[in-house]
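Submission checklist for the structure archive. All mandatory fields must be present; incomplete records are returned to the submitter.

[x] Identifier: RAD54 homolog B
[x] Organism: Rhinopithecus bieti
[x] Residue count: 127
[x] Sequence attached
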Amino acid sequence: MVGKARSSNFTLSEKLDLLKLVKPYVKILEEHTNKHSVIVEKNRCWDIIAVNYNAIGVDRPPRTAQGLRTLYKRLKEYAKQELLQQKDTQSDFKSNISEPTKKVMEMIPQISSFCLVRDRNHIQSSF
């Protein structure tokens, strides 16, 4: 099977750099509508983020807008999972979470409330 070459894994600093670059655009990127104008604006934002990201580190492999978009989506998912795990183990909430998750929580505070709602729904469905 011949496909495109797999790019290298993102390092912690690359993840944090991406989150820094995404921050000014969070309001647009987290808009959950299917309007054409919103989709066009999101694509424009991701193109800008990709250009800025690739300009930061010349020693890094270049990343596409789609690759960065996928990473951002994964970071949000990992943050949700990590917060749910923290709640399940009921350990000290802020001390054990990863740096990317902390940044995601700062940018999108709704993620922690999503986990609370999901947790409540899980408890209610147990009865």
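[x] Structure attached
Curator remark: The mean pLDDT is 84. DSSP finds six helices and no strands in the chain.
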